[in-house]
What we know:
The strands form eight sheets. The protein has a five-stranded mixed β-sheet, sandwiched between helices. A four-stranded mixed β-sheet has the order 2-1-11-10, sandwiched between helices. It is globular, with a radius of gyration of 25 Å. By secondary structure, the protein is α/β, with parallel strands linked by helices. It folds into three domains: 11-251, Rossmann fold; 274-326 and 329-448, ANL, N-terminal domain (Rossmann fold, 3-Layer(aba) Sandwich); 454-553, 2-Layer Sandwich (GMP Synthetase, Chain A, domain 3). The chain is built from 17 helices and 27 strands.
Amino acid sequence: MNQVKVPSYNQIVQECIQKYWECDSMSDYGLFTFKYKDVAEIIEKFHILYESLGIKKGDKIALCGRNLSRWGAAFYSIITYGAVAVPILHEFHPSQVHDIVNHSESKLLLVGDKVWPFLSASEMPNLEGIISLADYSVYHSNTDKFADAFATMDRKYEQKYPDGVQPSDLHYHIDEPDELAIINYTSGTTSNSKGVMLPYRALWSNYDFAVHVLGDVIKPGDKVLSMLPMAHMYGMAFEFTFEFLSCVHIHFLTKMASPTILMQALADVKPVVLIVVPLIIEKVVRKAVLPKIQTPKMRILMKTPIIGRIIKHKVCEGLTKALGGNFYEVIIGGAALNQEIEKLLHDIGFRYTVGYGATECAPIITYEDYHKTVLGSCGKNVIHQELKIDSADPSKIPGEILTRGLNVMLGYYKNPEATEATLDKEGWYHTGDLGIMDKKGNVFIKGRCKNMLLGANGQNIYPEEIEDKLSNMRMVAECVVIQKGEKLYGLVYPDPDQVQAAKLNEEALVELMEQNRKDVNPLLPSYAQLAGIKIMKEEFEKTPKKSIKRFLYANEEI
């Protein structure tokens, strides 16, 4: 791979703020808007605070809260100073937040008003202080130095900039490609979270990728609705940083949105691109589309050449309108998309594409534009990266997906063993995902190495493929396939609305699930068929990107 000269990421941030000074930058939906000059002022005030506290380049500063404009501005204040940002998912348990703040050796914590009541300052004794992301007030001061620095911050700002900060006043930290920018703690679908060390080259490379694939589509003044947590690299890279650097006006929902609020926000904002996890698009399709087209009469009509095309066009039009009606494409990532849902989206001509990434690649690994996307694929290897399948026959036999390049992390913070197990000596990142790649470079994911089960005769069984079919059965909301000895079992959480509507008692529900088992088994190889189904009383525990924490259920009693 050709050597690429990586520019200073912070220099791009600085030039972007200077260029778009008077433009709208970020909004808390329905509340207020920051222009780029407002963000510049916030950054300067925080830089004064950091300097007064003696915070050095490379010191860690943590952020934990729902998506807000103040979260975004604070993030940029950290990296443009040369400190290291530690974004923490607000859905993490308080004990996890405490552990991450301590493990990362963070000097400050900026925290949301919904998270703070559940935290304990005494559990994070090494912090200088804790600041509110809601209004930048002080929640807790651990030292007199912090109290004094915060109290004098505004006065020092006014002395330094009596007429307010101007574009020519910006002089941000000039970063080096391999310099540490972010420690991002993974959401842990298969184990406990690890601190992924992401250098500036990975931030720039993901930004440059987005410019290459969407730069001609997205224009200054366009709008985007940020729904994924910025503390997750998927949301940060493609709903926040790329847009901020492209003068795209970002609208943060700021709270958990009901379907009504979400649909209203989509109609108001009319986002130019939509970044979603499969759960969101699957829920929309199952609730709003499938009931209309799965009646016996509609099934027949859809198979009629002319009428079928008209119906599919109308369905696509309705789904597009429900999602704001103004997007170039919907980019789906973060987990596997259900095959039946994807086939429907493909058949009706919906503008979607499926990407693939990992926190360790900040996050992008594969992508393809919706015009060229291949059914079932998650795209092709992206710019600034190499990719290979560790298999004797990569087009037919699944092997581990390996990637290396500018996107790849430096390693796991204070965890050399995990780093050595994941990053080999040649720089290849071992994703832990299994896949195949066709002759044209399209990648098809088959499952996780850790999830792969071994059949009685040594067959490789990918539980995700069984779950994909089982989730299409009646009243199945969520499912996980586990192995007990040589037998496979499905753990199923039934759809409560459907169960209630059908007025099923427990016995009838057990019978229905047994029928589901009989219906799904003929669709599976003999070695991958289910011996039984256990009904779960509660939803499966999930990571913030809505992937089921399957490791919690591996030893479930049957």
